[in-house]
Design a protein that fits this description.
Helices cover about 25% and strands about 40% of the residues. The chain has helices at about 20-30, 80-90, 105-115, 135-140; strands at about 10-15, 40, 50, 55, 55-65, 70-80, 95-100, 120-125, 125-135, 140-145. The longest helix is centred in the N-terminal third of the chain and has 12 residues, at about 20-30.
């Protein structure tokens, strides 16, 4: 029986209204270096799809290394996305946990067969991602990350 090929959480993602401001607060509270705020899903490579349709979704993001787990702060901008939908319907908060996978297609098919639909997918220079809505079963969205060098 197939199971996800990673049991290690690599990232926790939070949706925020202001990535730069929230990053400043985290840096102050935890005594961390202030990360650069970068654009995500903002290029021709992104190929973002939300709920089966092409999307112009973008975001501003800041990344903190917290030991082996990265914390991602995402401020949604642009077209429809899981980020924008989460902020609009639930407000700020934990949006996803992420794990790496060597086979994104097999991992998403496995979860879809368990009633966990893919809600957003896309790419960046170096890999691809898929957000899968596992909220009824696991209490959160899972982000599957596939890195080209895997």
């Amino acid at each position: 029986m197939y199971q996800l090929d990673s049991q290690v959480i690599v990232q926790i993602g939070l949706i925020v209204k202001d990535a730069a401001g929230t990053a400043r607060h985290y840096a102050e509270v935890f005594g961390l270096p202030l990360p650069e705020v970068v654009m995500i899903a903002d290029d021709a490579i992104a190929d973002t799809h939300f709920r089966g349709k092409a999307s112009t979704a973008k975001g501003r993001a800041a990344f903190f290394k917290l030991g082996p787990v990265e914390m991602e702060l995402i401020e949604p901008i642009g077209g429809p996305s899981t980020w924008e939908e989460f902020l609009r319907t639930k407000g700020e908060g934990i949006h996803h946990i992420a794990v790496r996978t060597g086979d994104l297609g097999k991992a998403t098919q496995f979860l879809q067969a368990k009633g966990m639909p893919m809600i957003q997918s896309g790419a960046w220079l170096g890999g691809r991602y898929a957000y899968v809505d596992c909220t009824p079963q696991l209490g959160t969205i899972l982000e599957l990350l596939h890195f080209d060098q895997d």
